[in-house]
Specification:
The structure holds 2 protein chains of 2 kinds.
Chain A: H1 6-29, H2 36-43, H3 47-66
Chain B: H1 12-25, H2 33-52, H3 62-68, H4 74-98, H5 109-116, H6 120-138
Helix pairs in contact in B: 1-6, 2-6
Classes of the chains: A mainly alpha, B mainly alpha.
């Protein structure tokens, strides 16, 4: 399903991150649209989602700094 | 501009503490006990801050909801749908490359980060950002 080519996969990564940053820029510019910060604040609003968010943060730190070889 | 106007900005003393902790922690190698303890201590501290901030009580924090929802309506729902779609695409692609081999052809976010993490300053910056995000999540 994925292209068997590193450059093509890197281009897909670039496209995904460009879309995320572009949408963030749009939402910051338009007052009624939710920016990423607002999405995080909504996650903080309920018990389950705020603890899930914190668990994700712990996992990310563990994965990047403990379980990944530089 | 007052700190209250910038809720994402930690106090100066905390910035110094975060960078200092990151500088010490990133001296340790991955897969070692010192690094496990460094990440574990920081995680524990943030969980304690979360409990102190009242995360353990109240199913819904109405102050968070009421500060977000008013006067947004349909644009809020549409905007959230776009965020869900984009984050779903990122997650699915990450899982797809993660389950594919060889890693050079199918790079994950971690493998891409590996190259940049060779530099000390990048590791310190990344650790500092991780600590800052933890503080930001649990700040009152």
């Amino acid at each position: 399903m994925l292209p068997a080519d590193r450059t093509a996969n890197l281009l897909i990564w670039a496209g995904i991150w460009t879309a995320l940053w572009a949408w963030q820029a749009v939402t910051v510019g338009v007052d009624r649209l939710p920016s990423f910060v607002l999405v995080v604040r909504l996650f903080r609003a309920t018990w389950l989602t705020r603890w899930a968010l914190l668990a994700g943060w712990v996992w990310l730190g563990w994965h990047i700094f403990v379980r990944t070889t530089y | 501009m007052a700190v209250r106007d910038r809720p994402w900005a930690p106090p100066a003393a905390l910035v110094v503490a975060i960078v200092a902790y990151a500088a010490i922690a990133t001296r340790f190698e991955p897969f070692t006990w010192p690094m496990r303890i460094a990440v574990g201590l920081a995680s524990f501290a943030v969980v304690v801050l979360a409990v102190q901030a009242g995360w353990g009580s109240g199913l819904v924090r109405t102050d968070e909801v009421t500060s977000v929802l008013p006067s947004r309506g349909a644009p809020l729902v549409a905007g959230l749908a776009v965020w869900v779609l984009l984050l779903a695409v990122l997650t699915v692609f990450q899982l797809a490359v993660f389950t594919s081999n060889p890693r050079h052809t199918y790079p994950t976010l971690s493998s891409l980060a590996n190259a940049t993490f060779q530099a000390d300053l990048v590791r310190i910056a990344a650790f500092s950002v991780w600590l800052w995000v933890g503080w930001y999540l649990v700040r009152r």
